[in-house]
Amino acid sequence: MTPQKNKPAGKPRASRSAARLGAVQALYQMDMVGTPLDDIVEEFALHRLGREMDEEADYLPAHEAHFEDVVRGVVREQRAIDQRIHGNLAEGWKLERIDSTLRAILRSGVYELQRCKDVPVKVVITEYVDIAHAFFDGDEPKVVNALLDKLGRELRADEFRSNAGANGRTG
Question: What letter would DSSP give residue 14?
Answer without folding.
Answer: P
